[in-house]
Amino acid sequence: MSYLNFKSEYDCFPKTTIKNHKAFHGYDEIYHELNRKMNNNSVVVFDYYPGVDEEEVYELIKRFNFSLEINMHDIFKDGKTMTEQMKYNLSDDRVFGKMYYGNLVDFIDEDKLEEVQNKIKEQKESVIVYGVGASLVSHGDVYVYFDMARWQIQLRYRKGMANYNVDNYDEDILKKYKRGYFIEWRIADKHKEKYFECFDYVVDTNAANDPKMISSDTFKISLHQLSKQPFRTVPYFDPGVWGGQWMKEVCNLDVNQPNYAWSFDGVPEENSILFDYDGVIVELPAMDLVLYQPKELLGEQVYSRFGAEFPIRFDFLDTMEGQNLSLQVHPLTEYIKKNFGMSYTQDESYYILDAKEDAVVYLGLKEGIQPTEMISDLESAQRGEIVFDADKYINKFPAKKHDHFLIPAGTCHCSGKNAMVLEISATPYIFTFKLWDWQRLGLDGLPRPIHIEHGKQVIQWDRTTDWVKENLVNATYEVKEEGNDCKIEHTGLHELEFIETRRYTINNSSLHKTHGTVNMLNLVDGKSAVIEGDFEPFIVHYAETFIIPASIKEYTIKPYDCDEVKVLKAYVRS
After folding, report:
1. Full-model pTM
2. What is the pLDDT of residues 345-373, one digit of tens each?
3. N or C: which end of the chain has fewer CB within 10 A?
4. Torsion angle of the four alpha carbons 247, 252, 257, 258, in this order, in degrees rounded to the nearest 10
5. CA-to-CA distance for 109 and 117, rounded, in angstroms?
6. Are 523 and 567 in contact (CB under 8 A)?
């Protein structure tokens, strides 16, 4: 069946063109450019983000014939010591750890560090320091940073890559991801952010054996330009046990895949950004923009509240011709801070992009249920003794296109089958406490993690039918904005959540002011729209998520190649 009455123009690889700058493509070009910068007594630093293919980069290193080579693996503490040091943050849980707020240097052997630094001082000929954290040894005469996005790292975990400096090649993927999410990526981002101004070059290593390198000036100018114009991050898509068929058509994906369950299209912490330098496409983590231009991107107010973190997330959940999501609940702020070291939690909402007639959303508890009875049934179901009767305990609301269901933390919820959800939420997406998963195994053949012990401590038992109907189901009303005469509706989120969402129905031109805070939007209806302001016109297509940096004071949206569009906008409330 077809889900659209027009041909989708959804772009899976959105690019930003940077004029009058170049990129060096391939190891040959990179070698010749770096060789031009070196002499016989240069100290060269190759600093890596954890996940970079070190064997691949070492083939480049061998071409230079350095007199002294310093491998960072020889300076880090050994893997067992590092793991023991991380023990508290890793925890025994398969999914959840505790956020690590230390630094990369915490895992360095200080005696070895001092030893190699003295060696460099004594060395009269060329030196290479290479590996994760290489600039802790020296900034060198030529400093090259080898970068990559977290999604690519996750794909490499699946193919057997270990975490940094340990041999956990065959470990559970979720545990590898946990080590990256709670520790490695945190300290790597903090390290990278500290040395942005020291880079001479940045290398995109996302594609195997296909590196692209840009100069430090090009890197900075590109990020600065992006902070002044609308842009999209590079979406990625993944299958799942409950996955559906909608995204295949609308997002122009491989029709031969069994399903696509979810997509991140607007999660800078995970997504990439693409730059086009005269036909050479360079992929960088979108976090580079967040870390390097936080005030321009987020705005002073959001930055002062969240720091260099992008607090809003848009993603897709596709159950069209698929199955129910897992029944779940998210932790309260106090709970997530106390147990996982996060400063805010995953409040969210489901905006229904599309739905079949039988689509439903499970949301909140029925009146008069007994908490001990429900938890007992969940625990019995987890042991395989019974099948949990979700309909006995959880409200089930019909879901149709453009409905908006609000889900403040502590609310039991899930989407049923045959719905296409645009999930709008705060960023800490990993903190989902699954309560019941409909007797399914994951794609890896293992039971999907269930966290009833966590869940029962955060469920808000007073969020029952009447309260949910009044507060969380289509709590929509019209609002006015100065200078804007299109139809504007407040659709959420609940007053307990820090994100405001508004839907604009536009058939002419609609004026928008950022008020100094970042806007995240999705074209939820209509073929395409054009965004105009003090930047080149920017075209977006149906279902695409796009970001308006806070540095843009105002902008307009109007239909493009169609008569009317609907846009959903999210921003952090004042």
Report:
1. 0.96
2. 889 999 999 999 999 999 999 999 999 99
3. N
4. 20
5. 12
6. yes
